[in-house]
From TrEMBL:
InterPro entries on file: FAD-dep_OxRdtase, FAD-dependent_OxRdtase_HpnW, FAD/NAD-bd_sf
Cofactor dependency: FAD
GO cellular component, one term: cytoplasm
Keywords: Flavoprotein, Oxidoreductase
Pfam families per record: DAO
GO molecular function: oxidoreductase activity
Domain FAD dependent oxidoreductase: 9-367
Origin: domain of life: Bacteria
Record-given protein name: Hydroxyglutarate oxidase
Family recorded in the similarity comment: Belongs to the DadA oxidoreductase family.
């Protein structure tokens, strides 16, 4: 217990990607860092996702943070050997309404960020040359990481370089440089709290004030046919109605209406139909449902619907499902980021939208620089 009284420069609560990105940058600055987590390895949102670093689709206002995040992923990959590839994202347009949004996006952001493709080109890029697409787009700045590798490997790398990890330790209160846990008190000059969707367990009033709730997402992993390229990231029409960079475009309402007519079931389960790959196969999802205390059940109809639509874009006739899971992340109706400094030594940071992998290293910079952003 004596070791707990030692005064570190920085304690981070949470070993998800946000806590680890903050630890990585603080370690680079030469600070002594301790990470405390209730689990015995990263198992939160950060391993449950697509590993899609979707910088380009984020809102205009957050692009500087997205750019810092991109630099952070590249730096972390160079230092630690985690896979972070500059693959870009492909988006097939199968209707005129989808293509119109892509045209507007290309016009708005320019060719460095958005390149329009013919239907044939996008089909070939997805490994499905027969895809009846009207056209498509490639977002070359986007990146891919492996969600099952990134956080665990980053944690192991940090641990190997002297960052202290206190696993299986439940934090019950944080105030003014004191972290109270079920294994005693810890002290630091500064404390950063990154508890993800469990924010309410530590700061219930803040969570209620910001309308933080849990979003659950139906996901699956299927076998990957050899013709599908490695490093794949595919968004689709429903994605164009979710990410703020696309929804701000003039063609977005017409696409929303067209999807409601053409794909009512996808719209009904609040889908963002997308696919990425990892060495074990293709990650397919996702639906969105919101609750304070979600039930754990996966709706087979929803899982099957997502599988059916995604595999039809990729020309996979008989998908072989290897795993299914119900992912969880923090969500809020009113903001994409809770970044609070309740006292001089404490920062609380939760990404309240499904973009925490993308922005993690950028938000980590804001945390350490004492800055803020609203979006
Ligand atoms: C299915 C799915 C798909 C997604 N796809 C993408 C994507 O492609 N791109 C993207 O950018 N984002 C995506 N996201 C969102 C992204 O995964 C999250 O935004 C991000 O991982 C959040 O990271 P985090 O570190 O804040 O939280 P987490 O990874 O959940 O980590 C929080 C940690 O805090 C610990 N903790 C909490 N409370 C306490 C406590 N009191 N004491 C001790 N420890 C505590 C937990 O044990 C946990 O380890 C997706 C999410 C899901 C679920």
């Amino acid at each position: 217990m004596m070791g707990n009284m030692e005064n570190r420069d920085l304690i981070i609560v949470g070993s998800g990607i946000l806590g680890l990105a903050t630890a990585f940058l603080a370690h680079q600055q030469g600070r002594t860092v301790c990470i405390i987590d209730r689990s015995d390895h990263p198992v939160g949102s950060s391993i449950q996702n697509f590993g899609h670093a979707c910088f380009t689709g984020q809102a205009d206002i957050i692009q500087p943070v997205a750019e810092m995040a991109r630099e952070g992923w590249l730096q972390a990959a160079a230092a630690t050997g985690i896979w972070a590839a500059e693959t870009g994202t492909y988006i097939p347009a199968v209707t005129e309404a989808e293509l119109q949004v892509l045209r507007e996006f290309a016009e708005h952001r320019g060719g460095g960020q958005v390149q329009l493709l013919s239907g044939e080109e996008v089909g070939r890029a997805l490994g499905n040359p027969g895809l009846p697409a009207l056209g498509g787009a490639w977002l070359p700045r986007d990146m891919r990481v492996n969600p099952r590798e990134a956080a665990p490997k980053l944690a192991a790398w940090l641990e190997g370089r002297g960052v202290e990890f206190r696993w299986k330790t439940q934090v019950t209160a944080v105030e003014d440089g004191v972290v109270v846990t079920n294994r005693g008190e810890f002290h630091a000059a500064e404390v950063v709290v990154c508890p993800g969707y469990e924010l309410g367990g530590l700061f219930p009033e803040l969570a209620e004030d910001r309308g933080v709730r849990v979003c659950t997402l139906a996901m699956s992993l299927i076998e990957k046919p050899a013709r599908i390229p490695d490093g794949l990231a595919m968004l689709s029409g429903t994605s164009l109605t979710r990410y703020d960079g696309f929804t701000a475009l003039p063609g977005a309402p017409a696409l929303r209406a067209e999807l409601a007519e053409r794909e009512p079931e996808l719209v009904g389960c609040v889908a963002n139909l997308m696919v990425t790959d990892i060495p074990e196969g293709l990650l397919i999802g996702d639906s969105h449902a919101y609750a304070h205390s979600p039930e754990p059940f996966i709706d087979e109809g929803v899982a099957q619907l997502l599988l059916d639509r995604a595999t039809s874009l990729l020309g996979i006739e008989r998908p072989v499902v290897k795993q299914r899971w119900l992912g969880r992340y923090a969500d809020s109706v009113s903001t994409n980021l809770v970044l609070e400094r309740p006292d001089e030594k404490t920062t609380i940071a939760v990404v309240t939208s499904g973009i925490g992998m993308t922005l993690s290293f950028g938000i980590a910079r804001l945390i350490l620089d004492g800055e803020s952003v609203q979006f």
